[in-house]
Specification:
By secondary structure, this protein is an all-alpha fold. 70% of the residues lie in helices and 0% in strands. The two termini are 32 Å apart. Keywords: RNA-binding, Transcription, Transcription antitermination, Transcription regulation.
Length: 151
């Protein structure tokens, strides 16, 4: 998987957290990874017998995604506090779940992940917002992240 695919899958699992407790996330990870494998089989038209254990998505990628999601979930109080400080008129408890998940991921990448340059995190967050958010989401996310990035 490339970085964009890893980020998108991280976002999707992080979004899932909005509907499940932290304790339930282990099962959600398992189900999500199984669905990723199924999608990959469909894309590649690979027919694999039920006995087969061949995985189309490397274990390391799956492990990396789950690890990132867990780190973000653990940091949600700190992340939400930072977002709340710059989101004029909007607090995290009022934001759409898609937009909030994108903001959390982007903030984590900007402030807590040395692997991702801040500008890349912002650009990728806006791309996710265009794909998954409401019509106003890209501008909203860009505005919040611009304020966070200046801090």
């Amino acid at each position: 998987m490339n970085r964009t695919e890893i980020r998108e899958n991280t976002f999707k699992l992080l979004f899932c957290k909005e509907f499940h407790s932290k304790e339930d996330m282990g099962e959600q990870y398992k189900l999500y990874m199984e669905s990723l494998e199924d999608e990959e089989r469909e894309k590649t038209n690979k027919i694999i017998s039920e006995d087969s254990v061949e995985e189309l998505i490397p274990f390391e990628d799956k492990e990396y995604i789950v690890e990132r999601v867990n780190k973000i979930i653990d940091a949600i109080p700190e992340i939400d506090k930072a977002i709340d400080e710059v989101a004029v008129g909007w607090k995290t408890d009022r934001m759409g779940k898609v937009e909030l998940s994108i903001l959390r991921l982007a903030y984590y990448e900007m402030a807590m992940d040395d692997e991702v340059p801040g500008k890349v995190a912002v650009d990728q967050a806006v791309i996710l917002a265009k794909k998954y958010g409401s019509d106003n989401a890209p501008a909203f996310i860009n505005g919040i992240l611009a304020k966070l990035f200046q801090e």
